[in-house]
Design goal:
With about 325 residues, the chain is an alpha/beta fold. The chain has helices at about 1-10, 20, 50-65, 70-80, 100-110, 130-145, 160-170, 175-180, 185-195, 215-230, 250-255, 290-305; strands at about 25, 30, 65, 85-90, 90-95, 115-120, 200, 235-240, 265, 270-275, 280, 280-285, 310. It has one domain: Glycoside hydrolase/deacetylase (TIM Barrel, Alpha-Beta Barrel). About 45% of the residues lie in helices and about 15% in strands. It binds zinc ion.
């Protein structure tokens, strides 16, 4: 791929003055999970890091940025918080259990705040996101040496196919949820909040937004919002599941009519957005360390500057 080649080539000339070279005043890394274990529901869809790799990322980011809490981030956006350095807000998506078991102990030791954007539909292991089901099937297929090319392409709308395959290959999602408890429980969510970390909304059940009509995009978002409000979590923000690519201006206009909403988050890397309070985050699970990811993001941003392609214009 040409894009990949350009980024790899340019990043080789990038120095490590990240705080100086980073093109925005804020850095928003996004992770899904951290684990030393083989997690069959994630292994084939997310390149999650182990504890050592995650800690190395944090140490790299700590050198160049000042970590902030979500409240400080909001104050910074409002102009009420003047940081000494460029700031970084650590975020996680999907509400996996290891956030409590693995991530928080590391963050407490290092004194770093993070927030997790969760789907209420999966809290307490009531259900499994369709991509995780696909990952479980893929894991089973590998065990029995069954080749399959279309599995990872299945969509939310293919739920029936996914369930049929599970039946056929004797993969029991219910059992998996009960035994492995991949998601955080409501009790853990309250404990996380009480420890001073943030919980906010990732929509109700993780659909791909640009596949949905506007009314369903809004419904999914407001269902998540109501849950956050009822349970005392951060209802003023929302992070798009998968991507905000193709989400139109009218969605944001309608959302922000509700004055409870302060901001939304995408994960398109280092970019600005025509919706001023839609902030793009940097995906950290690319298979590379933070140092390399930052180098690539910085050099690619500089390259695209000449093409005016660092700004997302919504119609
Ligand atoms: Zn997600």
């Amino acid at each position: 791929m040409l894009k990949k080649l350009i980024i790899t080539t340019l990043s080789q000339f990038e120095n490590e003055n990240f705080s100086g070279n980073f093109p925005l005043d804020y850095c928003l890394p996004v992770y899904h999970n951290v684990s030393n274990e083989h997690l069959p529901h994630l292994k084939h869809i997310i390149n999650y890091k182990n504890e050592k790799e995650f800690e190395a990322d944090l140490d790299c980011l700590s050198k160049h940025f000042q970590w902030v809490t979500f409240d400080e981030f909001k104050d910074y956006v409002k102009g009420n918080f003047k940081p000494k350095k460029k700031i970084a807000l650590l975020t996680f998506d999907d509400g996996y259990r290891e956030f409590y078991d693995v991530v928080i102990p590391i963050l407490k030791r290092k004194g770093i705040y993070a927030m997790n954007f969760i789907n209420p539909a999966f809290t307490d292991n009531k259900d499994l996101m369709f991509r995780c089901k696909v990952s479980l099937l893929k894991d089973k297929f590998q065990q029995i040496h069954y080749e399959d090319k279309f599995l990872l392409k299945l969509k939310y709308q293919d739920t029936k196919t996914i369930n049929d395959l599970a039946m056929q290959f004797e993969v029991d999602f219910e059992d998996y949820l009960k035994e492995k408890r991949p998601y955080l429980s409501s009790d853990e969510l309250y404990q996380i909040r009480n420890k001073g970390f943030g919980i906010s909304s990732h929509g109700w059940n993780h659909p791909l937004y640009h596949d949905l009509p506007l009314s369903e995009q809004l419904e999914n978002t407001f269902q998540g919002y109501s849950y956050m409000k009822e349970n005392g979590f951060h209802y003023e923000s929302f992070a798009f599941p998968f991507t905000d690519f193709g989400v139109e201006k009218v969605f944001f206009d309608t959302l922000f009519k509700n004055e409870d909403f302060f901001c939304t988050f995408g994960s398109a890397g280092v970019k600005t957005d025509s919706v001023a309070h839609n902030f793009q985050r940097i995906p950290m699970e690319t298979g590379e360390n933070a140092r390399m990811i930052l180098k690539k993001e910085i050099s690619y941003f500089r390259f695209k500057k000449h093409l005016n392609k660092n700004h997302i214009q919504r119609k």
